[in-house]
Amino acid sequence: MNILFLHRNFPAQFRYIIEELTKDKRNEVIFVTNNTETRTYAGVKKLVYNLKRKVPDNCHRYTRFFEESIIHGQSAAEVLIALENSGFKPDVIIGHSWGSPLFVKEIFPDVPYIAYVEWYYNYVNSDVDFGREELDVDEKALLTCRNAHILLDLVKADCILCPTQWQKAQIPPEFHNKVTVLHDGINTNYCKPDENVKFKVPDKKNLVLTTQDEVLTYATRGMEEYRGFPQFMEAVSILQKQRPNLHVIVGGEDRVCYGKHLPNNDTFKKKMLREHEYDMSRLHFTGLQTYNNYVNLLQVSTAHVYLTYPFVLSWSFLEAMAIGCRIIASDTPPVTEIMKDNYNGILTDFFDVDALVEKINDVLDNREKYNFIRENARETILKSYKQSDLIPKQLELIYKVAASKAKS
Protein backbone atom coordinates (compact mmCIF):
# COMPACT_ATOMS: atom_id res chain seq x y z
CA MET A 1 0.00 0.00 0.00
CA ASN A 2 1.12 3.57 -0.72
CA ILE A 3 0.74 5.86 2.28
CA LEU A 4 1.30 9.62 2.12
CA PHE A 5 1.84 11.70 5.27
CA LEU A 6 1.90 15.51 5.49
CA HIS A 7 3.00 17.59 8.47
CA ARG A 8 4.95 20.84 8.79
CA ASN A 9 7.25 19.03 11.20
CA PHE A 10 8.82 15.59 10.91
CA PRO A 11 7.90 13.08 12.17
CA ALA A 12 5.81 14.77 14.92
CA GLN A 13 2.76 12.76 15.99
CA PHE A 14 3.25 10.28 13.17
CA ARG A 15 6.59 8.90 14.34
CA TYR A 16 5.40 5.59 15.75
CA ILE A 17 2.78 4.82 13.15
CA ILE A 18 5.25 5.32 10.28
CA GLU A 19 7.73 3.06 12.08
CA GLU A 20 5.02 0.40 12.24
CA LEU A 21 3.91 0.85 8.64
CA THR A 22 7.46 0.44 7.31
CA LYS A 23 7.74 -2.97 8.97
CA ASP A 24 5.58 -4.25 6.12
CA LYS A 25 7.91 -4.12 3.11
CA ARG A 26 4.90 -4.01 0.80
CA ASN A 27 4.14 -0.49 2.04
CA GLU A 28 5.67 2.59 0.47
CA VAL A 29 5.64 5.48 2.94
CA ILE A 30 6.23 9.05 1.78
CA PHE A 31 6.36 11.97 4.23
CA VAL A 32 5.99 15.53 2.90
CA THR A 33 7.21 18.16 5.35
CA ASN A 34 8.66 21.64 5.79
CA ASN A 35 11.17 20.32 8.34
CA THR A 36 14.68 20.56 6.90
CA GLU A 37 16.40 18.53 9.63
CA THR A 38 18.36 15.62 8.21
CA ARG A 39 16.70 13.02 10.44
CA THR A 40 14.72 10.33 8.66
CA TYR A 41 13.57 6.75 9.25
CA ALA A 42 14.38 3.57 7.40
CA GLY A 43 11.74 2.85 4.79
CA VAL A 44 10.38 6.41 4.79
CA LYS A 45 10.94 8.71 1.82
CA LYS A 46 11.08 12.24 3.19
CA LEU A 47 10.28 15.07 0.77
CA VAL A 48 10.86 18.64 1.98
CA TYR A 49 8.92 21.56 0.55
CA ASN A 50 10.24 25.12 0.72
CA LEU A 51 7.97 28.09 1.33
CA LYS A 52 7.66 30.40 -1.65
CA ARG A 53 7.18 33.55 0.41
CA LYS A 54 6.27 34.91 3.81
CA VAL A 55 2.95 36.31 4.91
CA PRO A 56 3.03 39.98 3.82
CA ASP A 57 3.03 42.65 6.50
CA ASN A 58 -0.03 44.30 4.99
CA CYS A 59 -2.10 41.11 5.22
CA HIS A 60 -5.39 41.59 7.07
CA ARG A 61 -4.75 40.36 10.61
CA TYR A 62 -7.92 38.23 10.53
CA THR A 63 -6.57 36.24 7.59
CA ARG A 64 -2.87 36.06 8.57
CA PHE A 65 -3.16 32.49 9.92
CA PHE A 66 -5.13 31.39 6.86
CA GLU A 67 -2.62 32.94 4.46
CA GLU A 68 0.24 31.20 6.27
CA SER A 69 -1.63 27.90 5.88
CA ILE A 70 -2.23 28.58 2.18
CA ILE A 71 1.49 29.22 1.65
CA HIS A 72 2.29 25.87 3.30
CA GLY A 73 -0.47 24.13 1.36
CA GLN A 74 0.63 25.59 -1.97
CA SER A 75 4.28 24.73 -1.35
CA ALA A 76 3.38 21.17 -0.36
CA ALA A 77 1.12 20.90 -3.42
CA GLU A 78 4.07 21.44 -5.75
CA VAL A 79 5.75 18.39 -4.23
CA LEU A 80 2.53 16.40 -4.53
CA ILE A 81 2.12 17.34 -8.20
CA ALA A 82 5.67 16.16 -8.88
CA LEU A 83 4.83 12.91 -7.07
CA GLU A 84 1.75 12.43 -9.21
CA ASN A 85 3.73 13.14 -12.39
CA SER A 86 6.27 10.52 -11.34
CA GLY A 87 3.48 7.93 -11.27
CA PHE A 88 2.99 7.71 -7.52
CA LYS A 89 -0.58 7.53 -6.32
CA PRO A 90 -1.32 7.08 -2.62
CA ASP A 91 -3.92 4.65 -1.36
CA VAL A 92 -4.51 6.86 1.65
CA ILE A 93 -3.38 10.32 2.79
CA ILE A 94 -2.86 11.28 6.44
CA GLY A 95 -2.26 14.95 7.11
CA HIS A 96 -1.94 17.19 10.14
CA SER A 97 -4.50 19.96 9.68
CA TRP A 98 -2.01 22.82 9.80
CA GLY A 99 -1.84 23.93 6.20
CA SER A 100 0.33 21.29 4.51
CA PRO A 101 -2.54 19.03 3.34
CA LEU A 102 -4.79 21.91 2.29
CA PHE A 103 -4.90 20.94 -1.41
CA VAL A 104 -4.48 17.15 -1.35
CA LYS A 105 -7.98 16.60 -2.72
CA GLU A 106 -7.30 18.92 -5.63
CA ILE A 107 -4.39 16.71 -6.65
CA PHE A 108 -5.66 13.30 -5.56
CA PRO A 109 -9.49 13.73 -5.56
CA ASP A 110 -10.25 10.00 -5.33
CA VAL A 111 -7.76 9.18 -2.57
CA PRO A 112 -9.21 8.96 0.95
CA TYR A 113 -7.89 11.63 3.30
CA ILE A 114 -7.55 11.29 7.10
CA ALA A 115 -7.25 14.73 8.71
CA TYR A 116 -5.47 14.81 12.07
CA VAL A 117 -7.21 17.74 13.79
CA GLU A 118 -5.70 18.79 17.10
CA TRP A 119 -7.70 21.92 17.76
CA TYR A 120 -10.71 23.86 16.49
CA TYR A 121 -10.91 27.39 17.86
CA ASN A 122 -13.93 28.40 19.93
CA TYR A 123 -14.48 31.56 21.93
CA VAL A 124 -16.87 30.13 24.54
CA ASN A 125 -15.86 27.62 27.25
CA SER A 126 -12.45 27.13 25.72
CA ASP A 127 -8.90 28.42 25.98
CA VAL A 128 -9.37 32.03 24.83
CA ASP A 129 -12.09 32.94 27.34
CA PHE A 130 -10.54 30.98 30.22
CA GLY A 131 -10.54 33.19 33.31
CA ARG A 132 -11.86 36.16 31.31
CA GLU A 133 -15.04 38.08 30.75
CA GLU A 134 -16.80 37.72 27.39
CA LEU A 135 -14.64 38.49 24.36
CA ASP A 136 -15.43 41.51 22.21
CA VAL A 137 -16.62 41.18 18.61
CA ASP A 138 -13.16 41.88 17.18
CA GLU A 139 -11.62 39.01 19.16
CA LYS A 140 -14.43 36.68 18.14
CA ALA A 141 -14.03 37.60 14.47
CA LEU A 142 -10.28 37.04 14.61
CA LEU A 143 -10.75 33.63 16.21
CA THR A 144 -13.47 32.61 13.75
CA CYS A 145 -11.12 33.30 10.85
CA ARG A 146 -8.39 31.16 12.42
CA ASN A 147 -10.59 28.15 11.61
CA ALA A 148 -10.70 28.82 7.86
CA HIS A 149 -8.19 26.18 6.76
CA ILE A 150 -9.40 23.73 9.43
CA LEU A 151 -12.95 24.02 8.12
CA LEU A 152 -11.74 23.19 4.62
CA ASP A 153 -10.06 20.07 6.01
CA LEU A 154 -13.16 19.08 7.97
CA VAL A 155 -15.28 19.32 4.82
CA LYS A 156 -12.85 17.47 2.54
CA ALA A 157 -11.65 14.77 4.94
CA ASP A 158 -13.05 11.26 4.64
CA CYS A 159 -12.07 10.66 8.27
CA ILE A 160 -11.13 13.07 11.07
CA LEU A 161 -8.72 11.88 13.74
CA CYS A 162 -8.65 13.45 17.24
CA PRO A 163 -6.48 12.43 20.21
CA THR A 164 -9.07 13.03 22.99
CA GLN A 165 -12.80 13.44 23.50
CA TRP A 166 -12.20 16.99 24.75
CA GLN A 167 -10.49 17.91 21.49
CA LYS A 168 -13.31 16.30 19.52
CA ALA A 169 -15.83 18.40 21.46
CA GLN A 170 -14.27 21.57 20.03
CA ILE A 171 -15.12 20.52 16.47
CA PRO A 172 -18.56 21.62 15.18
CA PRO A 173 -21.05 18.78 15.85
CA GLU A 174 -22.07 18.51 12.18
CA PHE A 175 -18.67 16.89 11.55
CA HIS A 176 -18.71 14.48 14.50
CA ASN A 177 -19.94 11.58 12.38
CA LYS A 178 -16.55 11.61 10.66
CA VAL A 179 -14.48 11.87 13.85
CA THR A 180 -12.54 8.97 15.36
CA VAL A 181 -11.04 9.59 18.81
CA LEU A 182 -7.75 7.72 19.02
CA HIS A 183 -4.70 8.85 20.93
CA ASP A 184 -1.16 8.42 19.59
CA GLY A 185 -0.29 6.36 22.67
CA ILE A 186 2.42 6.34 25.34
CA ASN A 187 5.41 3.99 25.33
CA THR A 188 4.77 2.40 28.72
CA ASN A 189 7.83 0.16 28.43
CA TYR A 190 9.99 3.27 28.41
CA CYS A 191 7.85 5.59 30.51
CA LYS A 192 7.75 3.64 33.75
CA PRO A 193 8.79 4.08 37.40
CA ASP A 194 12.42 3.59 38.38
CA GLU A 195 13.14 3.85 42.09
CA ASN A 196 16.89 3.64 41.45
CA VAL A 197 17.06 6.47 38.93
CA LYS A 198 19.61 9.25 39.28
CA PHE A 199 19.14 12.66 37.70
CA LYS A 200 22.26 14.69 37.12
CA VAL A 201 21.25 18.34 37.19
CA PRO A 202 22.61 20.18 34.13
CA ASP A 203 25.18 22.92 34.80
CA LYS A 204 25.56 21.76 38.41
CA LYS A 205 28.12 19.03 37.98
CA ASN A 206 28.15 17.79 41.54
CA LEU A 207 24.39 17.69 42.06
CA VAL A 208 22.72 14.33 41.48
CA LEU A 209 19.14 13.84 42.66
CA THR A 210 17.47 10.52 43.50
CA THR A 211 14.00 9.40 44.57
CA GLN A 212 15.16 9.78 48.18
CA ASP A 213 15.42 13.54 47.71
CA GLU A 214 12.55 16.00 47.92
CA VAL A 215 11.96 16.97 44.29
CA LEU A 216 9.21 19.04 42.71
CA THR A 217 9.02 18.80 38.90
CA TYR A 218 7.43 20.73 36.05
CA ALA A 219 7.93 19.88 32.38
CA THR A 220 6.37 21.32 29.24
CA ARG A 221 7.83 22.55 25.96
CA GLY A 222 7.55 26.24 26.82
CA MET A 223 7.20 28.52 29.83
CA GLU A 224 3.86 30.19 29.21
CA GLU A 225 0.50 31.19 30.63
CA TYR A 226 -1.31 28.37 28.80
CA ARG A 227 0.58 25.79 30.88
CA GLY A 228 0.34 27.70 34.17
CA PHE A 229 4.01 28.62 34.39
CA PRO A 230 3.39 31.90 36.29
CA GLN A 231 1.23 30.15 38.88
CA PHE A 232 3.76 27.37 39.29
CA MET A 233 6.65 29.78 39.75
CA GLU A 234 4.74 31.83 42.29
CA ALA A 235 4.05 28.63 44.22
CA VAL A 236 7.76 27.72 44.06
CA SER A 237 8.75 31.06 45.60
CA ILE A 238 6.50 30.26 48.58
CA LEU A 239 7.51 26.61 48.87
CA GLN A 240 11.23 27.34 48.88
CA LYS A 241 10.80 29.49 52.00
CA GLN A 242 8.87 26.70 53.73
CA ARG A 243 10.97 23.72 52.64
CA PRO A 244 14.76 24.14 52.92
CA ASN A 245 15.46 20.72 51.36
CA LEU A 246 13.20 21.13 48.34
CA HIS A 247 14.75 20.97 44.87
CA VAL A 248 12.66 22.21 41.94
CA ILE A 249 13.35 21.02 38.39
CA VAL A 250 11.81 22.90 35.46
CA GLY A 251 12.09 21.13 32.11
CA GLY A 252 11.51 23.02 28.88
CA GLU A 253 12.63 26.09 26.99
CA ASP A 254 12.23 29.76 27.83
CA ARG A 255 9.72 30.41 25.04
CA VAL A 256 6.01 30.57 24.33
CA CYS A 257 4.55 27.71 22.28
CA TYR A 258 0.90 28.59 22.89
CA GLY A 259 -0.80 31.84 23.82
CA LYS A 260 0.43 35.39 23.96
CA HIS A 261 4.01 36.64 24.13
CA LEU A 262 5.13 39.40 26.44
CA PRO A 263 6.11 42.72 24.82
CA ASN A 264 9.68 43.91 24.25
CA ASN A 265 11.12 40.39 23.95
CA ASP A 266 10.39 39.73 27.61
CA THR A 267 9.69 36.15 28.73
CA PHE A 268 7.62 34.66 31.51
CA LYS A 269 10.73 33.12 33.03
CA LYS A 270 12.47 36.49 33.23
CA LYS A 271 9.28 38.10 34.54
CA MET A 272 8.79 35.59 37.36
CA LEU A 273 12.47 35.72 38.36
CA ARG A 274 12.17 39.52 38.61
CA GLU A 275 8.96 39.51 40.59
CA HIS A 276 9.71 36.79 43.17
CA GLU A 277 12.61 35.65 45.32
CA TYR A 278 14.20 32.26 44.65
CA ASP A 279 17.07 30.19 45.96
CA MET A 280 18.73 29.47 42.63
CA SER A 281 20.89 26.74 44.18
CA ARG A 282 17.69 24.70 44.55
CA LEU A 283 15.80 25.88 41.44
CA HIS A 284 17.05 24.14 38.29
CA PHE A 285 16.13 25.04 34.71
CA THR A 286 17.24 22.15 32.51
CA GLY A 287 16.45 23.59 29.10
CA LEU A 288 15.58 21.18 26.31
CA GLN A 289 16.69 17.69 27.33
CA THR A 290 17.17 14.40 25.55
CA TYR A 291 14.14 12.17 25.87
CA ASN A 292 16.01 9.84 28.20
CA ASN A 293 16.97 12.71 30.53
CA TYR A 294 13.41 14.02 30.41
CA VAL A 295 12.08 10.63 31.49
CA ASN A 296 14.66 10.52 34.29
CA LEU A 297 13.49 13.95 35.39
CA LEU A 298 9.96 12.62 35.82
CA GLN A 299 11.15 9.38 37.44
CA VAL A 300 13.01 11.26 40.18
CA SER A 301 9.96 13.39 41.00
CA THR A 302 8.37 13.39 44.46
CA ALA A 303 5.54 15.64 43.27
CA HIS A 304 4.82 16.77 39.71
CA VAL A 305 2.74 19.78 38.65
CA TYR A 306 0.78 19.97 35.40
CA LEU A 307 -1.40 23.01 34.76
CA THR A 308 -3.19 23.81 31.53
CA TYR A 309 -5.82 26.07 30.04
CA PRO A 310 -8.78 24.24 28.45
CA PHE A 311 -6.61 23.45 25.43
CA VAL A 312 -4.71 20.60 23.76
CA LEU A 313 -3.57 18.04 26.34
CA SER A 314 0.22 17.64 26.58
CA TRP A 315 1.90 14.29 25.98
CA SER A 316 4.00 15.12 29.06
CA PHE A 317 0.91 14.79 31.25
CA LEU A 318 0.23 11.23 30.09
CA GLU A 319 3.93 10.34 30.21
CA ALA A 320 4.08 11.56 33.83
CA MET A 321 1.08 9.36 34.63
CA ALA A 322 2.73 6.36 32.94
CA ILE A 323 5.87 6.95 35.01
CA GLY A 324 3.74 6.95 38.14
CA CYS A 325 4.22 10.55 39.23
CA ARG A 326 2.22 12.01 42.09
CA ILE A 327 0.58 14.66 39.95
CA ILE A 328 -1.10 17.86 41.10
CA ALA A 329 -2.99 19.04 38.02
CA SER A 330 -5.41 21.78 37.05
CA ASP A 331 -9.12 21.05 37.32
CA THR A 332 -9.68 21.79 33.63
CA PRO A 333 -11.52 19.71 30.98
CA PRO A 334 -8.53 18.21 29.11
CA VAL A 335 -7.17 16.94 32.44
CA THR A 336 -10.44 15.74 33.97
CA GLU A 337 -11.20 13.57 30.93
CA ILE A 338 -8.41 11.32 32.23
CA MET A 339 -7.68 12.27 35.84
CA LYS A 340 -10.05 11.75 38.76
CA ASP A 341 -9.38 13.67 41.94
CA ASN A 342 -7.76 11.65 44.72
CA TYR A 343 -7.74 8.53 42.53
CA ASN A 344 -5.02 8.89 39.90
CA GLY A 345 -4.03 12.47 40.69
CA ILE A 346 -4.87 15.54 42.72
CA LEU A 347 -6.89 18.31 41.07
CA THR A 348 -6.52 21.97 41.93
CA ASP A 349 -7.93 25.30 40.77
CA PHE A 350 -5.71 26.63 37.96
CA PHE A 351 -5.55 30.17 39.36
CA ASP A 352 -5.44 29.43 43.11
CA VAL A 353 -1.74 29.54 44.02
CA ASP A 354 -2.40 29.08 47.75
CA ALA A 355 -4.34 25.88 47.08
CA LEU A 356 -1.55 24.67 44.79
CA VAL A 357 1.03 25.27 47.53
CA GLU A 358 -1.12 23.47 50.09
CA LYS A 359 -1.57 20.41 47.89
CA ILE A 360 2.09 20.22 46.94
CA ASN A 361 3.05 20.44 50.61
CA ASP A 362 0.63 17.65 51.46
CA VAL A 363 2.14 15.34 48.84
CA LEU A 364 5.71 16.18 49.84
CA ASP A 365 4.89 15.57 53.52
CA ASN A 366 3.07 12.31 52.85
CA ARG A 367 4.68 10.68 49.84
CA GLU A 368 3.90 7.14 51.03
CA LYS A 369 0.26 8.06 51.61
CA TYR A 370 -0.04 9.00 47.93
CA ASN A 371 1.60 5.93 46.45
CA PHE A 372 -1.84 4.62 45.51
CA ILE A 373 -2.18 7.62 43.19
CA ARG A 374 1.05 6.63 41.48
CA GLU A 375 -0.23 3.09 40.92
CA ASN A 376 -3.63 4.25 39.65
CA ALA A 377 -2.07 6.82 37.34
CA ARG A 378 0.09 4.23 35.63
CA GLU A 379 -2.78 1.75 35.50
CA THR A 380 -4.93 4.37 33.74
CA ILE A 381 -2.33 4.71 30.98
CA LEU A 382 -1.80 0.96 30.70
CA LYS A 383 -5.54 0.45 30.33
CA SER A 384 -6.40 3.19 27.82
CA TYR A 385 -3.29 4.89 26.41
CA LYS A 386 -0.72 2.14 25.98
CA GLN A 387 1.04 2.67 22.68
CA SER A 388 1.38 -1.02 21.86
CA ASP A 389 -2.41 -1.34 22.14
CA LEU A 390 -3.23 1.82 20.18
CA ILE A 391 -0.89 1.39 17.22
CA PRO A 392 -2.84 -1.67 15.94
CA LYS A 393 -6.02 0.42 16.18
CA GLN A 394 -4.36 3.21 14.18
CA LEU A 395 -3.29 0.69 11.55
CA GLU A 396 -6.78 -0.75 11.44
CA LEU A 397 -8.24 2.71 10.89
CA ILE A 398 -5.79 3.54 8.10
CA TYR A 399 -6.43 0.26 6.25
CA LYS A 400 -10.18 0.55 6.81
CA VAL A 401 -10.36 4.06 5.35
CA ALA A 402 -8.21 3.05 2.38
CA ALA A 403 -10.27 -0.09 1.73
CA SER A 404 -13.66 1.64 2.01
CA LYS A 405 -12.70 4.17 -0.65
CA ALA A 406 -11.30 1.47 -2.91
CA LYS A 407 -14.66 -0.32 -2.85
CA SER A 408 -16.73 2.80 -3.56
What's the topology here?
Blueprint: E1 2-7, H1 15-21, E2 28-33, E3 44-48, H2 64-85, E4 92-96, H3 104-107, E5 113-116, H4 137-146, H5 148-156, E6 159-162, H6 165-170, E7 179-181, E8 198-200, E9 208-210, E10 214-222, H7 229-242, E11 246-253, H8 268-275, E12 283-287, H9 291-299, E13 303-306, H10 315-323, E14 327-330, H11 333-336, E15 346-348, H12 353-365, H13 371-384, H14 387-407
Parallel strand pairs: 1-2, 1-4, 2-3, 4-5, 5-6, 6-7, 10-11, 10-13, 11-12, 13-14, 14-15
Antiparallel strand pairs: 8-9
Helix pairs in contact: 7-8, 7-12, 10-13
Give a short synopsis of this structure.
With 408 residues, the protein is an alpha/beta fold.
Shape: globular
SS content category: alpha/beta
Main beta sheet, described?
7 strands, parallel
Number of domains: 2
On the 0 to 100 scale, the average pLDDT is 96
Helical fraction: 25-40%
* CATH topology grouping of the largest domain: Rossmann fold
Q: What is the CATH homologous superfamily assignment of the largest domain?
A: Glycogen Phosphorylase B
Instruction: Give the N-terminus to C-terminus distance in angstroms.
Output: 17 Å
Number of helices: 14
- Second-tier CATH architecture of the largest domain: 3-Layer(aba) Sandwich
**Multimerization state:** single chain
Low-confidence parts, pLDDT < 50 over ≥5 residues?
A: none
Physical arrangement of strands within the biggest beta sheet: 3-2-1-4-5-6-7
Give the topology string: H per helix, E per strand: EHEEHEHEHHEHEEEEHEHEHEHEHEHHH
Number-wise, the strands total 15
* Rg, Å, rounded: 22 Å
Strand percentage = 15-25%
